[in-house]
Here is the input.
Amino acid sequence: MLQLAWALFVLLLLTGTCAVLASGGKVHAALLPLPLLSGAALVLYGFGVAGALRLGAGLVFLLWAAVWVVGLVKLRPAGFAKACRETLTTPGIALFLGGAAFLWVLFFALQPMFTQWDEFTAWGLAPKMVVERAAFYVADPVNLKASFTYPATSLVTFLFQPFGAWAEWACLAALDTLALACAAAATALHRQRWYSGVLVFAAGVLLPYFFRDPTPGAYATQYVNAMADLPMAMLFGGTLCLYLGTQHRRGVFWLTALPLALLTLTKDICFAYGLIAAFVIGLDWLVRAEGARRDRLVSALLHGGGLAVVVVAAFLSWSRYTAAVTPTVDTAASVGSAGLSYGAVLTGGIKQLLGIGRDEKFAQIMAAMGDAFFTRRVCLLGGGAAAVLVITLVAAAAWLAAEKGAPRRSILVMHLAFAACFAALYAFHLILYYYNFSDVEGLALKDYDRYLTPYYQAWMLTMLCRLAHQARGKLGRGALGAAAAAVMVVFCWRGVPAAGFWTAADSLYTLRTDVETRAEAMNTVLDWKDRVLVLSQGDDATRWYYYRYELTAQVVNGFGGFYGRLGETEDRWDSDFMNLVESENWTLYDYKAVCVPDTLVAYMAEKDCDYLLIDRADDYLQREFSPLFEGGLTADMPATLYHFEGEDAEVPFTVAAVAESEVQ
Here is the structure.
């Protein structure tokens, strides 16, 4: 309950801050939630680099409270109350605040949990570690397992959970709040055109469902998702919408830099997304700015280039930080198993695209990518070609509704810039499939829709925003209404999920809650400095990843292959998890670790393990390994944590904790 109350307090504090800052009339209130949230996350970023995250959170809330005090003094209580009323009746703010409060209350009631694989390997694990330990995971040896993630989602989560009490539902609600702030930025219109703001907000919120390939009957994770896809798409589109709402006011314009920096810190590919946004904004400034051509060019270079500098600075700051705090870990940017630099990959990929030394694998992937643009579903209407057609229709409607001259040129240039950058991004992903994936995964275009739909979504949101800004006459209003209605109709026709953030998903959490219950018993004994090897016979890695997420300890990787089974040689490879099997049965397992009692003990010593957790045993463990364990082992034993006493101990493993569970 405390977390919900705190979140609602943060929303209230944010709303009052927006009211005071918008009271002067220089900036539309609907534009402010996005830069304020982004700016708060960036303040946390700076303090996180310095190792003082909670101090940074305190400073953010003090600054917001100081804005309230200034507003009360400057406007007096009556004026402050009036500013708050005007802000709360602004469509974008009202929809943002109402939607965010609704999601926080709903998630508090339903308590949704993480369900996707990558949430346990990184995107959910990273914010959990940051909230619980108030430190960036890369600066903490415990958290190196999440070091490849970027910090933006963790920072936004920490803003709403600064006290160290972690809740998955609060993480999900925090990221959704950021997404709604991005949608609100598209609604910065005159009060008389409130209906346009409502339409574009509604369509923007539905875009994550519109750009997807739904599995019939599956649980929709669009707004119950800790991964970076939703924040990346919404920040990319929201930054462009924020820029469009600034109307080239020089002081207000630089608010765009805040979400742009946060976008860059969201995911590795967001370095490219950030530069694309800076490029598109620079081109649009060149078209829309007034004055002589040379003056416009200089102004466009200053503004677009300034934003590009922000992107590069944010990207380099995180790269330098991770390199500085993890000197023993390879943090250099590289691609694929060969460890090629990005420069080498781009050079080699461009040569392949031009047909210079093109090999068969690249040719096959290029053919698959060309075919996928038309056949692989990325939206409710079909493939990428259908998505681009829909976005182009919205852009055309905005162009027709706009006044002749600079407004029309601006829309055309922005749309074409988006298209050109998409073509470059598409080619870049082709190169990545060649260099960064196995032959099977590359030819199958693994996660194709997930990699590209954020771009389509941001492109569509930006064009909807442009249409809303031009929807002054009957033609424009009708076009905006038709576009928003089309998104809603297609969603209702083909995209309404059977279950989503509005429903309980208890059936998805059976294994999660089982592992969580067992881990709670183990955590009464464990500490973060402890190293634990987890064995769960018959596991496909799912339970292992759940334990790595749940245990307050360092979960040690296992191995595959043979260890000490073939004479004096060692023939094994690193693995995430392992099942112990007999040598004659190793072909029955996809993940094989042929191991005998002596080599298990040797491996525990080699990896400096403190504990061994047997989640699930089997007949092989019972028959061969029982003498090593206090009380012996049985195939149907409960999950048991054993302390490792050392190689020379008469009984190397002694019982430390036992967890009963009905699920086996």
